[in-house]
Amino acid sequence: MSVATLDAKRLLVLSGLCALLIAAILWYRIWVPAEAQPEVHNAESTAIQTVTLIKPLMDEDVPRQSLEGSSDAGARGSATAGAALSESSFDWRIPGWLPPPPVPEDNPMSEAKVSLGRHLFYDQRLSQDDSMACDSCHQQSLGFTDGRALSVGVGGSVTERSAMGLANVGYSPALTWANPHMTSLERQALVPMFSEEPVEMGMAGQEQILFGKLQQDPLYKALFAEAFPEHDGRIDLLTITRALAAFERTLVSVGSPYDKYKYGNELQALGEAALRGETLFYSEKTECYHCHQGFNFTDTLQTANSGFAEVAFYNTGLYNLDGQGLYPAGNKGLFTFTNKPEDMGKFRTQSLRNVGVTAPYFHDGSAATLDEVIDHYAAGGRRVQGALAGNGHENPHKDPLVMGFELSDAEREDLKAFLHSLTDAEFLSNPRFSDPWPDGHPARGGTGISLDQSDSTTTTEVSKP
């Protein structure tokens, strides 16, 4: 047999095999029912980032986003475990360009549940001495922060952290400054109520007392019954935390002047200074946008339509106590959970939403103004004097993008104008998110804590770069 004949036969066999393969693929894709096809999951988790494939819930053309139908989110990484998307027909009252936040399948959204959660959020009976509620540390007018360097619990106990703003908290797959495992709003709600070190609301060991307080209120009997008919209106930790989480997921802030300019095509919404500041913010000169990106100005983000969930922590050179990168005791960031030297001083990227009203800044509230924040990044890490002395610029664990830059006085004002354009005045006064309790109601509790901001500030002295 000639070589040419042999090659021809080989080509014929290969062509036949290719045809059979194509036919098999077409049969599988077209004729096999969708539910019979295996679902593919890809969950990859590290201390820095979690990536998960998630089926889209929404039709992007729907003008008012609602969760409709069902979706199996499948297996998730450590940062999103148990956060499968659920069946619901809840109206989020958000613009068409924005997908809703993800919702756990065991806590679907409902108006009744949100209403209950709102009442609980502002109820001081959730604390040991009826002196504070969730809003004591998360005030609406301040972007749901408290204006203090460090938050304060019952009896004047001072915590180690500055209260984080809750704007768009439902979109965050990691909920605290440094804990990569705190991924659930439902679970997080337990911390302020029952934590002992530090004490916040002081209810540790007093669960039955808490339930008794709420059961005595006729309004709660009706609200719990409407929100949780599947649990017979029971008042317990499961229903309390699920209602609080449902309310918190509705705290969506996308009505700032910048939103109107960027997404609403209102070209006059931003002034010239803010427009110049936007250019600086997204420039390689300042590098701000690398970490503060996307609609929520953070690289820690997940939506109901996300192809992946991202969680990021960075060391920005705030401290360098020993010249080798050491951060203060109790504020060592991600290192506390991983015990990896390279994670010393790494904290979660905070959203810049409403940043104009959420001072003081950083995890320990050690920057009182936006100017101090800009000073820190302009220096590429700040120089600290006093008890926490050290040169953060030389911190060996500092992120390489925190290099430093120079701004003229005019450029600095432009950058601040842009940052102030991220403040959503409607969100800060929206009655849907405000205190529903009337004056004189027991939910208003005792007299509360009266403490000047100076009483809870750190003793850190920060020099101007």
Quick structural gist:
By secondary structure, this protein is mainly alpha-helical. The chain has helices spanning 3-31, 111-121, 185-188, 190-194, 207-215, 218-227, 237-249, 257-262, 272-281, 335-338, 370-378, 409-420, 425-429; strands at 43-45, 50-52, 313-314, 347-348, 383-385, 390-391, 461-462.
Structural class of the helices, strands and pairings?
mainly alpha
Largest sheet: 3 strands, antiparallel
Distance between the termini: 85 Å
Topology-level CATH name of the largest domain: Cytochrome Bc1 Complex, Chain D, domain 2
Strand order of the largest sheet: 6-5-7
Gyration radius over CA: 26 Å
Number of helices: 13
What's the CATH C level of the largest domain?
Mainly Alpha
The percent range for strand residues is: under 5%
- Stretches where pLDDT is under 50 for at least 5 consecutive residues are 26-87, 447-465
Name the shape in a single word: globular
Task: Give the second-level CATH assignment, the architecture of the largest domain.
Answer: Orthogonal Bundle
Question: Would you report the number of β strands?
Answer: 7
Overall number of structural domains: 2
Helix content: 25-40%
Name the CATH homologous superfamily of the largest domain.
Cytochrome c-like domain
pLDDT averaged residue by residue: 84
